[in-house]
Design brief:
Layout (H helix, E strand, L loop, with lengths): L5 E5 L3 H12 L3 E5 L11 E4 L1 H9 L3 H7 L5 E6 L5 E6 L1 H8 L4 E4 H14 L3 E4 L2 E9 L2 E8 L2 E7 L1 E4 L6 H7 L5 E13 L12 E6 L2 E8 L4 E9 L11 E3 L1 H7 L5 H8 L4 E8 L7 E2 L2 E3 L2 H4 L8 H18 L4 H30 L3 H14 L5 H10 L2 H4 L4
Parallel strand pairs: 1-2, 1-11, 2-7, 4-13, 11-19
Antiparallel strand pairs: 3-6, 4-5, 8-9, 9-10, 12-15, 12-17, 13-14, 14-15, 16-17, 18-19
Amino acid sequence: MGKSRTIIIAGAGIAGLTAALSLANAGFRVQVIEKAKTIDTAGVGIQLSPNATRILAGLGLSRAISAAGFTPENVIITNGATGTILSRLPLGESIRTRHEFPYLVLHRADLAAILLAAARENPEISVDFATSFEDAAMYSNGVTVMALRAGEMVEYSGCALIGADGVGSLVRERIVKGAPAKPAGEVAWRALVPVEKLHPYTDLTNTRLWIAKNGHVVTYPVRASRMLNIVAITPKETGRKLSRRVEDIAPDRLLAFFNEWSDDVCQLLASADNWSGWPLREINPAGHWTKKTTALIGDAAHAMLPYLAQGGAAAIEDAMVLAKCLAQQPEDIPLALGKYSNQRKLRTRKIWHTARKYGRIYHMRGLSAVGRDIFLRTANSRLLGNFSANRLQSQMDWLYGWKG
């Protein structure tokens, strides 16, 4: 590759750390800066489909993520108002056999810790926490990044800057000049509940999805099945006006929104003592991703709604493609970043719009919801047997079977 090159990454989340490992494997020196003092330990789960676990396995992390994660047997879709099971999408060994790699669920902080540990062990990667990106100056052959650390301005020099700093990306705002994220009008309320607080018959072997008008609930076990991750999606008006990224809500206020849902949902939600809300925001992937020697990845480029559970997986895909493009054109960074953007935009647009479509389907009401439920129950009827299961899985092949 010629002389040593350093790539600066703003953000030490899933996108940034995966990109650091991928770039180091491609022969680059990587400097990561992160404004937080440590990795985010918020009580949030993450779902990793085979398109993501395949990439993480290629980074040598398969054993670690499998040990920290859990493989659900199915996604079970239920009518949230009546409690009627509508459909089952087989996961588990069925998905592993179909796509060679597993579908895992785990605590986001556990995944971040695995990525950070791998980065710490790699001599080509440096990670500086408590160091916030402020600005950058781009040149024909590189970039100088200005960052704030302990009240003082520090500089980093490299051949490229990667903005992996999330939906509120300063790299997007100040360097790429991309459009700001748009509020989606909904809030994801999240809670982690110890299994001993749950009803004895709570499902701890599947990912569960309850759907009804204007909202839905998702659950799956994390932390070696010692905790149940619960996500409840509601309209923004359910809670106080959210002015920050995370804000708590009184359990009774959240329960009031779901009071007409089935008893199993209400009982499940009542088991949580604390809820924190993330106002959902979007960034259309059709916008600008690059400018000269700077590029965006993950939520900074294409923040998407969570209805397809692909936000983290799409960021992991970005990291792999970015490293591949830079390795192929190390002497022409703008060209490499342009190729990366062109390759990723087509796929992320499809994921982004499909996630939006799923949200509309989940939150249907009236006759539309009745038609949806009939379709799901018919498609997954026992009379159709294996044909039905294969049909449901084949609809996700474009997503889970991606190999870059």
